[in-house]
Write a structure and sequence with these properties.
The complex is a heterodimer of chains A (528) and B (393).
Chain A: H1 2-23, H2 26-29, E1 31-32, H3 34-37, E2 39-46, H4 48-69, E3 76-79, E4 84-91, H5 95-103, E5 109-116, E6 119-126, H6 128-153, E7 159-165, E8 168-177, H7 182-190, E9 195-199, H8 211-217, E10 226-234, E11 240-247, E12 252-253, E13 257-264, E14 271-277, H9 279-291, E15 297-301, E16 304-307, E17 319-326, H10 328-340, E18 347-355, H11 357-386, H12 388-410, E19 414-415, H13 417-446, H14 451-483, H15 486-520
Parallel strand pairs in A: 1-19
Antiparallel strand pairs in A: 2-8, 2-18, 3-4, 4-6, 5-6, 7-8, 9-12, 9-15, 10-11, 13-14, 14-17, 15-16
Helix pairs in contact in A: 1-12, 1-15, 4-6, 6-10, 11-12, 11-13, 12-13, 12-15, 13-14, 13-15, 14-15
Chain B: H1 15-35, E1 39-40, H2 42-45, E2 47-54, H3 60-69, E3 74-80, E4 87-92, H4 107-118, E5 128-129, H5 135-145, H6 156-176, H7 194-203, E6 204-205, E7 209-217, H8 219-247, H9 250-274, E8 277-278, H10 280-310, H11 316-348, H12 354-391
Helix pairs in contact in B: 1-9, 3-4, 5-6, 8-9, 8-10, 9-10, 9-12, 10-11, 10-12, 11-12
Classes of the chains: A alpha+beta (528), B alpha/beta (393).
Amino acid sequence: MKRNLTYRLLFILLVFVGSIVLSYPPSEKINLGLDLKGGIHLVLQVKTEDAFEVETSQRREMIEADFKEENLVFTRTQVTEDFGIEIIGALQDQERQLEIYLDQFSPAWTYRPRYREGEVDMVMVMSSAERKALADRTVRDARETIQKRVDQYGVAEPTIQIYGSGSIQDQIIVELPGVEDFDRVLNLIKSTAMLELKLVHPTDGGPFATREAVLQAFDNRLPVDYEVITYPNSPETGGGSTYMVVRKAPSLTGQNLKTANRAQDDFSGRSEVAFFLDSEGVNLFTRTTEQNVGNRLAVVLDDQIYSAPRIDERIASESARITGNFSPEEAEDLALVLRSGALPASIQILENRIIGPSLGLDSIRRGVVASLVGMMLVVLGMLVVYKASGINAIVCLVLNLLVLMAVLSGAHATLTLPGIAGVILTIGMAVDANILIFERVKEELRSGKKIRSAVDAGFDRVFTTILDTNITTLIGAAVLYQIGTGPVRGFAVTLGVGLVANIFSAVFVSRTLFSLVLQKMEVEALSI
Amino acid sequence: MDIVKDPKIDWLGLKWVFFGISLVLMLTGAVALLTRGLNLGVDFTGGTLVYVKFKEEPDLDRIRLTLGDAGLKAEEVVRFDEISQNEVQIRIAGGTAEETLDMTLGSNQVFEALRPEYDLEYLETGKLDLNNVPRSELSARLQELDPVALGEGTPVAEFVAHYDEISEKIINYRTEQSGIIHRFSELDQLDLAAGVVTVLNEEAYPGNFTILSVESVGPKVSEELSNRARTAVILSLGFMLAYVAFRFWPIYGLAALAALFHDVFITLGAFAVTQREISLTVVAALLTLVGYSINDTIVVFDRVRENLKLMRRDDLVTVINTSINQTLNRTIMTSGMTFMAVFALYLFGGQVLRGFSFALVIGIIVGTFSSVAIASPIVLWWQTLMEKRKRHP
C-alpha cells in the first residue's frame, strides 16, 4: 500500500512539473485568439460563377475557331444563362460530324440537338460533376493565391481555410492575428489582379467623355470584338475619368508575368510598377508591338485602364512599366498582388471582424484580474467551510489549472476571451467534485464509520456522480465546439479540457492526498 | 463545518410556493419577450458593431448625425464601459438586400465618416493621425523624412529596422494607453531622439478619436449563425434529455428537461427585461448554464435513486425530501463557489463579457432553484399518476 502511494505521488509530481515546463513562459507558449491579440477575421465567398463564365466563353471561342477550320457551318454561337453553349444554325447533314466533334468534350459537357426547319442547333450544358470539379478547383486556387499574398505581406501564423456549409465548400476563412493595417490587407486580399494588355481601337479608341459619346462614334454599333473600358485618372483629361474602346481579346495577360516589383521613375521620382515577362510573354509582346506601331496599348487591371501608352516601335523587351498616380505603398501592394497571380474569381466579403491591439490588451488585463479574484474567493470559501481538507481541494484546483494551461500550450489551442471565462468557470466547477466528496465523507463520518473507511466510502459512492456531472457539461462543450465559431470554440475547448483535467484531479489526486495524510499522520479527527 | 445543520425541510410541501415564484418569473419574462423582444446582436441580425474611443466626453447625438451624413445609419449609440474611458458602442444597420462585393463595413469607412467632424482642422493637411495610424505607415513616413539623419551610408536593412523600432515604441505606448495619445508631451517619457519628436510634431497630430474594433456581419453569415445557435440549443437539450433518461429513468429525463426549459426561458426573460444584447458568446453562456443546471438535478436524482433502495418503507415524498435535504449542503456550496467565480467575472471581466457573465449569474441562481422546485415535483407527480393508474386500471 505504501509503495502504491509513493508511485501515485511521484506521478502527480511529474504531472505538476511537466505542466509548468510545457506552459512556461505563458506569453510565448499560449496561442492568443484574435480577440485578445488584435487582428482581422474574414469570411470570404468565392464567386465561382466567374470561373464558369471564363470557362464557358473560352470553350465557345475554341469551338468557333475549330468549326471554321473544319468547315462546319453554323450561324452563330451564344452563351446561355445557365453557363451552357448553343451552336445555332448548323446543317442537319453535318450533324454526325458535329456529334463526333462534341463527343470529345464529354463527360464534362453534354449536348443535345434541337431541330428547326432544316437546321439543327446543338445545346451544350456543363455536367454537374464538371461544375463541382471546376468550383472546387477555383476555390482551391483562390485560397492558394490569397495564401501567397498574405505570406508576402508577412503575417505571423495566418489561418486561411476553405469552409462551407454542407457539400458546398466555396467560402474561405482568413484569420490574420496581429495585423494593424486593416484596409491595406483587405485590399490585398480582395483585388482580383487580372492584368491584361489590350490594343486600343486604331482609329476611334478614345478617350471619350461618356459612354454615349462612344456609341455615337460607332453609330450605336460597337464592333463585335471590341469593348468599352473606363480609364480613371487619364492624364489627357487632367485626371478625370474617361472611356476607351479596346479589343476584347487581350494581347498579353498576367499569365505570362514572371515577376513584378516597385520601381521609381528616374526623372519624376514617382513610384511605378515594373513587371517582367516570361519567354512566351516576351514573344507575344514583341509580336504585338511589331504589328501595331502607332497604336496605343492599354494596360488594364481588373477591368480598369491604368495607362495607354502609344507603341512607338517594336519592343523586344522582357519588362515594362505600369505608371499611374501611385504612392510608394500602393505601388508596392500592386506589385505584390501581381506577383501572387490573379484570383480565379472575384471575392465577396461576407463577414469582417477587426480588433485593434488596445482592445485585446484591455481584455487580457480584465480576464486576468477576474480570474485571480474568482480564484481567491473560491479558495477562501473552501478553506472556511472545509478547513484543512480545503487545502486538498485547493491543491487539486491548482493542478487542474496547470494541466489546463499545459494542454492549451501543447496542443497549440487558442485562448480567446470567452476562453478565459471558461477558465474562471472551470475554477468554480472544479471544486464541485471535491465538495461532493467532502460532503459524502462527512455523512459517512456522521453515520459512525471510522475515518479511513469513511474516506474510502465517500470516494467510491461519489465517483459515478462526478462522472455524470462532468460528462453532461462535456456534452454541452462538445456541441458548442461543433456549432460555434472562433471565440466560442475557444470557450468550448477551455471548458472541455478543464473538465477532463478536473475528473483526473478530483478522483486521483484528491484520493492520493487523503491517503497521504491518513498514512503519514495519526489522525484522530478529520478536519473537514 | 456544515452550512445548514441537519436540514429537515419539507421541500415538496412547498412546491406550490415554488411554482408560484416560477410562474411570476416566467410571466414577467414572457411579457418582456412579447413587448420588448430580445436585443439580438449583430451576429444574428447582420450589421456592424463599432467601438470608438474619444479623447473627450463624446456627444452621442453628434456621433449619430455625423455618421448619418456619411450615409451610415446608426441604429444605436451608447456609452460603453466606465464613463472615464470615453468609449462608445455604435451599432450600424446592415446594408440593403442588394448583393455587392463587400457585404460588410470596414474600419476605414467608419474612420472616414467620423473624421470630417472630429478632426476637421487636420483633414487636408496630409498629416498622420497618430491615434489611428498603423505602425508600418508611421515607419514609412519616418523613413521618408529620416529625422535622425541616418543618411545614405546606412545599409537599407538597418535603416528600416531603426525606424521600425521607433514606430513600434510609439505604437506600443499608444496600445498601453488603451489606444489614445492625448498630447505630444506624453511621448517625452519614451526618450525619443529630438529629431524624431520635431518631425512628429510637424507631420502628425493626435487625433480626437480612435477606432478600437469593427465587427461587421453580412446577411448570409448572420443567417447561418442564427441557425447554428438554434441548432446548438436544441441539440444540447436533446442530448441532456437522452443522457438523463438513459442514466436514470425516462420520466427523470423529462423532468430534467422541463427544469432546463424553465431556466433558459427565465434567463432569456431577464435579457428581454434588461434589453441586454444577445451575442454568440451569450448563447454559449446559455448552453453552459444548461450543462450546469443539469448537474444540480443529477446530484439530487442520484441521491433519490440511492435512497429508493435504502428507504424501501418510506413513501416517495419522504424519499425525495430526504434526498434534497441530504444534498443541500453540497448544493449550497457548489452553487456558492460557482456563483462567486462567475460574479467575479461579472464585476471585473469587462464590458465585452458582461452579457456572458450576466447570463451565468442569473442562470446559476435559477438553475439551482429549478432542481428542487421543478424537477422533483414533476417526478413526484408522474410517479403518483403511475401509482393511481396501477390501482385503478
